[in-house]
Amino acid sequence: MGELKRTTLPFTSLVGLERLKLALILNGINPQIGGVLISGPKGTGKTTVVRALADLLPEVDVVVGCRFGCNPKNPDFLCADCKGLVDSGNKLKSESRKMRVVNLPLSTTEDRLIGALDIERVLQDGIQALRPGILAEAHQNVLYVDEVNLLPDHLVDDLLDAAATKINVIEREGISVAHPSDFVLIGTMNPEEGELRPQLLDRFPLHVAVGSHHTIEDRMELVKRNLAFEDDPDRFRQNWEAQQIELLEKIIKAKELLKKVALPDVFLRAIAMACDALEVDGVRPDIIISKSAITNAALEGRTQVNLEDMKLASQLVLSHRTRRGGLLEPPSPDDVDQAITKAVEVAQKTERRKSPTEVSPEDDEKAGPRVSGGRFGRGDKFAVGGRQEGKKKLRRE
Q1: Three-state DSSP class for 293?
Q2: Is 156 helix (H, G, I), strand (E, B) or coil?
Q3: Which of 29, 69, 135, 302 has the greatest CB tally within 10 Å of its CB?
Q4: Residue 107 domain boundaries
Q5: Structural domains of the chain, count
Q6: What pLDDT digit, counting tens, does each position of 89-127 carry?
């Protein structure tokens, strides 16, 4: 049978949703960011945008013939078969392939997600007795979970384990088999249908909330493009081919520039100070803000992060984060911008005054009081927005 004709709108033809498209592009440039959570009511184009991303995903290196898509350039994350070849002195043959979007349906069983072991064969054939699951398919790809807030708890636990360790472990009757499972996690949810477990919420590096509000012109243009696509998909895609190629080339150039982008210590200090002042739980947000700011600078063709990169990255990273152990709502965009801007000012003064390693106990005692829960700067005080106790809400764009 021939391949089914693609029925996805081109990414560049989608109307609106600019913040969401940017978040997805950043993950395409730098998969180490790790993914994005998309929240919003039904009919806002969440799934359409994710499916359209497939055309713009970059290529990755894989071992020829490997069932798990191992990356030959990452010897620390090889399956047992590939590791055995390396240990025996063989060189792994590699090839390039495009990343793809792997779907995780809500009806998925645990065996389908993590894989199944044939116990009778496992002692004789080892890893060959494993029937790979979705987490194997997702390695070096995008794992897409629609209505992720409705995913059964036992599947959420398996997903959390793989997302945290980048390894999938299948254990049956005392026998354990492991393989790499490093993926970009993209989930969509309608908050009206239920909340997301805090443990899983925290595993989504970026968050974008989309609304159903469009201008009249946008609604008209959206209808026109959908009608044109339904009438002649091939012609429609051809009309948008130049824009698709232009964006793809921009992504490729950004990937090449990524390692050359510098994040000055003064900005790194500002990120840490802002997260501390906003009372964000854990240090994962600091890391993701840094990665995202660097990636956005590369997308813009720059080799140094600036304040706008940090503001954008911080809004994407912090808009769904728990604070003060879950007692505070996620910060508003204004609170985030204010915190980053003032943190940069304070950090610049600190860097000019002395290096971070020269802070004495006497200076620490003179440090300013904790502002919104975090001591902000050395002797500098300011407030960051208002505190809001109670249940968290995911704000929309």
Answers
A1: helix
A2: helix
A3: 135
A4: 11-58+99-209
A5: 2
A6: 889 999 999 888 999 998 899 989 998 876 666 656 656
